[in-house]
Amino acid sequence: MPAEGSPAGAPGDGTPAAGTPARATLVDRVRTNRRVKTLVASAIPVTWVVVLLLVPYALLLIQSFWRLRNGTLTHELTTENYRRLFGTSLYPATILYSAGVALRVTVFSLLLAFPVAYVLAFKVRKHKTLLYMAVIIPLWVSYVVRAYAWKIILGQQGILNGLLMSMGIIRTPLTVLLYSTAAVVLALTHIYTPFTLMPIYAVLDAIPPALKEASQDLYANRWRTFIHVILPLSLPGVVAGCTFAFVLSMGDFLAPQLLGGNDSALMVSNLVWSLFGVAYNWPLGAAVSVVMLALTLVLLWVAGRVEARGSYGGEARASVTDYAAPV
To answer: Which one-letter DSSP state was computed for residue 157?
Structure first.
């Protein structure tokens, strides 16, 4: 208790004097310092990425240099796994086969996604959002359900064979529909077409209508407007969508396993699964995974460069008047 007659906040009474600012706490310093606040806010996601992404990749890289001796995993550093990977034709052939399947999936996905995205962006006036949601609604269904659905459709007692037999086109069920590369390509195209459509639609929908109007004012017909205006401006979305389809389908595991039959062993993801789960050759499986990761990073870098050059601000982008038909 302060002595009688002494002013409030006098020295020694434990309360700050009037007009004296309170000492800033650690929380107050974090809130007022923008740099510290940014570091604290980014600490959780950065830690999450490092622990669950970068550290496993680093361990995978280290494991690819270990040696498997008499069925026992040893921590001896060696390049034997990479020499075996590139010294035989099995693994490069598997990678090329997987790339071929992924390329076909990418082409078919693009052929399906681009017209739908174009119609949604330029032709649909009412309920555009509703139709867009209807197109990407397969993404709401589990991947496993979609893959099994194609197994039911293409099976010998499946929906497609039953329909063909009921129409009298075939007498006995076709056995070539399921457990083939065509079945894998068909299923992966269905699964990854929405991933291709979304970036293409986003880019097409963002194209200013004034560019099309300017092209038409300069007597360019619809085909020339599409070839010289719409298509070049849509390249970033096309590149992004094709990258999604190629990378995801090349690393897919479940659809080839369910629908590919013997051909599934030719997919690189199933080869890695076999090396880890069946052959117990973790170092070789890690080496194959590292090579696939490196190829994916190179592909993403190339796609990023192409997308950057095709953006609106690219220096090589010509104006609409360069492509207009002469009067």
So the answer is: T
pLDDT per residue as tens digits for the range 60-107: 999 999 998 887 888 888 999 999 999 888 899 999 999 999 999 999
pLDDT, tens only, 266-321? 789 888 988 988 888 999 999 999 999 999 999 989 988 887 776 654 443 433 33
Q: How far apart are the first and last CA of the chain?
A: 96
Q: Which pairing describes strands 72-74 and 67-69: parallel, antiparallel, or unpaired?
A: antiparallel
For the chain, the domains span 89-323
Radius of gyration of the chain measured on its C-alpha atoms: 30
Phi-psi region of 70 (alpha: psi -120 to 50; beta: other; left: phi over 0): left
User: Which candidate, 235, 242, 250, places its Cα nearest to that of 296?
Assistant: 250
Q: Provide the pLDDT for residue 264.
A: 73
Name the region of 219 (left: φ>0; alpha: ψ -120 to 50; beta: rest): left
Residue 85: CB atoms within 10 A of its CB come to 19
Q: How confident is the model at residue 215 (pLDDT cuts 50, 70, 90)?
A: confident
DSSP states of 185-249: HHHHHHHHHHHHHHHHHHHHHTS-HHHHHHHHHTT--HHHHIIIIIHHHHHHHHHHHHHHHHHHH
CA pair distance 54, 44, nearest whole angstrom: 15
Identify the CATH assignment for 89-323 out of 1.10.490.10, 3.40.1380.20, 1.10.3720.10, 1.20.81.30: 1.10.3720.10
User: What whole-number distance in Å separates Cα of residue 211 and Cα of residue 182?
Assistant: 41
pTM exceeds cut of 0.90: no
Determine the average pLDDT of the residues in 237-262: 90
